[in-house]
Amino acid sequence: MAIEASNPGALTLRAFSPGPGEDALLIMGQKNSARRSLAATACVFLLAACTSDSRSMGRSLTDDFGDTIPVGRAPKRVVSLNPATTEIVFAIGAGNRLVGRTHWDLYPAAASKVPDLGSGIRPNVEAVLGAQPDLVLLYASVDNRPAAARLRAAGINTLSLKIDHIADFHRAVRLIGLLLGDSMSAAAVSDSVQQSLDRIRNATSGLPTPTVFWHIWDAPLITIGRGSYMDELITIAGGSNVYGDMPDVSPTVGIEDVLRRKPTYIVTGPEGAAKIKADPRWSVAPAVREGRIIVVDTALVGRPAVRLGEAATEIATLLHPELRSRLEAKGH
Question: Which CATH number fits domain 53-181: 3.40.50.1980, 3.40.50.300, 3.90.1150.10, 3.40.430.10?
Answer without folding.
Answer: 3.40.50.1980
